[in-house]
Design brief:
globular, alpha+beta
Length: 118
């Protein structure tokens, strides 16, 4: 891809990210789960927007996992354990400008299957 195409793709993702972010807001009892995916790894964090603090985080690099749907499902189950240990049962899912498909959807399904309400 040329640099112009990549730049336009980046700008469109940022616009979508801002639109999504304006609609979801997290609190201490119902935090916002923000996800980030790179070509190699997948990251997620639970954020309390009222205080601006990260409550919990997980990344596939530390778990020795990749960026596949199966690994994202495992990460969702592991992250659900971390959240339930901290007393969090429901969250707001922020897909961070990514399409709700593939790895992002698999992570959300892993959370749901482990008892976290999205």
């Amino acid at each position: 891809m040329t640099s112009k195409v990549l730049e336009k793709k980046k700008i469109l993702r940022e616009k979508c990210k801002k639109r999504i972010r304006s609609q979801c807001n997290g609190s201490a009892t119902k935090p916002r789960i923000s996800v980030f995916r790179s070509n190699r790894y997948f990251y997620a964090q639970a954020i309390d927007d009222s205080r601006g603090h990260t409550l919990a985080c997980i990344d596939s690099a530390k778990l020795k996992l990749g960026n596949t749907k199966e690994d994202a499902g495992k990460m969702g189950a592991e992250f659900a354990k971390i959240l339930s240990d901290r007393g969090i049962n429901s969250v707001v899912f922020d897909r961070n400008g990514y399409v709700y498909h593939g790895v992002v959807a698999s992570f959300a399904d892993g959370l749901r299957n482990s008892g976290i309400a999205l």
